[in-house]
Amino acid sequence: MIVVTGATGNVGRPLVQALVAAGEEVTAVSRRISAQDVPAGVRHQQVDMAEPANLKPAIDGADAIFLLTSGDFAAAGGDLDAVLEVARAGGVRRVVLLSSQGVGTRHHSPEFEDAVTRSGLEWAMLRPGNFASNALQWAEMVRAQRTVAAPFGDVGLPAIDPVDIAEAAAAALRDTRHAGRIYDLTGPAPITPRQQVTAIGEALGEPVRFVEQSRAEAKTQMTRFMPEPIVDRTLDILGSPGALQRVSPDVERLLGRPARTFAEWVARNIAAFE
Known about the structure:
Number of helices: 12
Helix content: 25-40%
Low-confidence stretches: none
Largest sheet: 7 strands, parallel
Distance between the termini: 39 Å
Number of strands: 9
Mean pLDDT: 94
Strand order of the largest sheet: 3-2-1-4-5-6-8
Radius of gyration: 19 Å
Shape: globular
């Protein structure tokens, strides 16, 4: 059995679907979850990862776990060592961690990866870059005004489709040949916020205007739904991404096909912007 944490999110939901489609037994775990959030017949359990002991019933009979540590977990001082100890004591042998490309470029702390490597479990790390789904933060503006306001309009990052991350995670969870490996996951080419807005407009069939924000304006907006330390780090990266602009071949290595484009993500999610 495979336990998927963060099972209702942009990565966890398609990961559960991919594993079920591959014939795996899955337990879906999230802070808020119901039967409507998972495929029919999938076991699900409400667990706050900040309370690791609550994870014990979910991992009963599991041999692998997908770990997603949310911003809330980090902001609350979550103890991943304790989570991993609960998993190990419960019989889990393999862990796949959703990390960040920023760890490799030293934009982000390696503390969660370090916890995994010293856990004694077989492991693989996934380091995605900028998520294509981050564009959903613009959905309300697009629906109401056909306008997007964002900072750093001409700084491009190779945005990755969360479904590609999910399918990469499914491959790493199911195949022990990925043990001990770190995968950088990116989209196929850098794309700027201005270009993303153009792609949304093309999918809608009408123009969407781009308005460039200052850093201060962006911070005010982002702190409405993200902890301030994470907002500051995110804006630092968006403004000066450096090595994060590089395209990685690891999606194709894992999945045997190129990474999906931002336009493909938009086409699949266009209802959010209509």
